[in-house]
């Protein structure tokens, strides 16, 4: 860890736990207090891009919606482009879509068909890893365009859901 990185305990303290949101049984991780803290927000971006220098990443792909906040800041720091993976029906141009399983039912994410060049080097970012379904679907879209995922970075991992296995 470099000296400018925030301590994990400081990050954890700045994330507010909201019980039973958006539905009973879910403990929602509210990152807005963290985003409002200039030092922690900047430090989290540094953590998410740790090990990457400008020029080593062509595009940072962010996942709808809180992933956009971190991925766009990371893209600026890495001098890379920003590409959104959105929920189905939100992107205006032609898209590739990928469905994935939720606890009850399915969800679909989409990416513009020309969002990434084949062979481009991609860093994929989201705020939180739960079951891993969303990130796996986003990764499948990146791969469908022939781009190469260098790393998938998250700020928060809900370990009890074993999302890494996805
Ligand atoms: P999953 O596909 O199960 O890994 O879910 C990850 C996605 O759902 C991320 O985009 C998160 O922003 C969101 N998410 C899932 N669970 C939570 C939670 N407890 N608090 C905040 N966001 C969550």
How does this model look, in words?
By secondary structure, this protein is an alpha/beta fold. The protein has helices at about 10-15, 30-35, 40-50, 65-80, 135-145; strands at about 15-20, 25-30, 60-65, 80-85, 95-100, 105-110, 120-130, 150-155. A 6-stranded mixed beta sheet has the order 5-6-4-3-7-8, with helices on both faces. Strands 1-2 form a two-stranded antiparallel sheet. α3 packs across α4. It is globular and about 40 Å long. The mean pLDDT is about 95. It binds adenosine monophosphate (AMP).
On the 0 to 100 scale, the average pLDDT is: 96
Which ranges are low-confidence, i.e. pLDDT below 50, for 5 or more consecutive residues? none
Give the helix tally. 5
Report on the biggest sheet: 6 strands, mixed
Structural class: alpha/beta
The run of helices and strands is HEEHHEHEEEEHE
Termini separation comes to 27 Å
Bound molecules: adenosine monophosphate
The proportion of residues forming helix, as a percent range, comes to 25-40%
Q: What is the number of beta strands?
A: 8
Task: Indicate the topology.
Layout: H1 8-13, E1 16-19, E2 27-30, H2 32-35, H3 38-48, E3 59-63, H4 66-78, E4 81-87, E5 95-101, E6 106-112, E7 121-129, H5 133-144, E8 148-157
Parallel strand pairs: 3-4, 3-7, 7-8
Antiparallel strand pairs: 1-2, 4-6, 5-6
Helix pairs in contact: 3-4
The chain binds adenosine monophosphate (AMP).
Features:
single chain; 166 residues; alpha/beta; two-stranded antiparallel sheet; 5 helices; 8 strands; binds adenosine monophosphate
């Amino acid at each position: 860890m470099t000296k400018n990185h925030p301590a994990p305990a400081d990050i954890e303290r700045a994330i507010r736990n909201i019980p039973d949101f958006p539905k009973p049984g879910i403990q929602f991780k509210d990152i807005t207090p963290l985003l409002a803290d200039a030092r922690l927000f900047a430090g989290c971006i540094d953590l998410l891009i740790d090990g990457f220098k400008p020029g080593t990443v062509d595009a940072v792909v962010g996942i709808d919606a809180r992933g956009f906040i971190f991925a766009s800041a990371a893209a600026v720091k890495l001098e890379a482009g920003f590409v959104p993976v959105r929920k189905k029906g939100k992107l205006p141009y032609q898209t590739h879509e990928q469905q994935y399983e939720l606890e009850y039912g399915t969800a679909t994410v989409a990416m513009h068909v020309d969002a990434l060049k084949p062979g481009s080097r991609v860093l994929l970012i989201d705020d939180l890893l739960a079951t891993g379904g969303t990130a796996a679907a986003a990764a499948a879209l990146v791969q469908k365009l022939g781009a190469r995922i260098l790393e998938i970075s998250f700020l928060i991992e809900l370990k009890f859901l074993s999302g890494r296995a996805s």
